[in-house]
């Protein structure tokens, strides 16, 4: 039985959380639109980078031929082969292979890393048995920060995700891959360098010509959209000719969006201060699946410090901070002597992986939020298994579900406000606009978390109004980083 005083103390924390998470969504959407306009005017003019992707043609469905894709974004990479057969048959055939990158190559040199990738690609192409003499074309999804200079070139700004191949920084990653493929005898041209958000937009457009926005809502979060080239002042400042299509895909990098109107709580502030990148990626830290479980854990820890409804904190994992994981990640990038440094990085990568498995994750939040059992048995199991919080009362478990609802609801509503900001920027879903506007969304947060998806869709109606929202649709669009890359290669084919 929970003491009344303890329950009241916990309820105060939850009430304060609900109030702190309440967002002025119209202001958020307006601020997002304003930041986008500033980012399009000049480099560094906005918190969000508004990167010109140089993708000026999106697939139409008429594309034919065999195209390849390379998806490099973590400790594994994928190679894909896609056969396109025009309007009637669309994707006639598609297959792929995933390859693990040996840990020592993640901290070696560029020629070794890209050589390994090109070798795997060569074997994959050879197994396909193609020999019609036509040079193949490839879309390259490279999920690391680059400064793109054309549709098929971009210099690496920095590595993330446990990579530290120092001699690749500042170099053109497409040129590195092209050189490695030539050494392996692979007759293939990199037709496009993209990120997964742009790929999601392309994959969505391939099946629906009304797709104008692509969004990632998973471990991370980002958005891309189709902009009129004439509305991009910094494109003109660069002295280049406007594309014949009249359009240009913009990679917003909205994860770094910040505005005083964002509902930032004490838990968000503490999480940000303990992160590897304090003061950066604030919007992503409020929205993406990477952080939702950690925010809930921090709320539960505060409740545990002010009441006994979660038991003795010292006997739980409530103090196992997300910052430990950041600590181990940071060690991966320290300047360490070689070969000791390489061994050290590999050990730290193993530790990081183990800690990630112990974390209170978004799938756990989703499972508790969707618990339909009368006694909230799933909530009890997740608390016991992940946080070692046992013997909770039904009232306590109901409170945990409420916390999940508040944190997830804020995430979904902010994501919806960001989408509305984009739609308003391009004059969509406005009074009198009769065009259908489709938003292609990829990522586990949107795909697997039903309550998140429902809240996002409801918020779009709330912000746009019943009438305008009827012409706005969100669609799950999977594998933008693979299929989307091949489709963009096809749309920019030399043939």
TrEMBL record:
Name of the protein described by the UniProt record: Phosphotransferase
Pfam families in the cross-refs: Hexokinase_1, Hexokinase_2
UniProt-listed PANTHER family: HEXOKINASE (PTHR19443), HEXOKINASE-7 (PTHR19443:SF87)
Key word Protease present: no
Keyword line: ATP-binding, Glycolysis, Kinase, Nucleotide-binding, Transferase
Gene Ontology CC terms, in alphabetical order: cytosol; mitochondrion
Catalytic reactions of this protein: a D-hexose + ATP = a D-hexose 6-phosphate + ADP + H(+); D-fructose + ATP = D-fructose 6-phosphate + ADP + H(+); D-glucose + ATP = D-glucose 6-phosphate + ADP + H(+)
Organism: Zea mays (Maize)
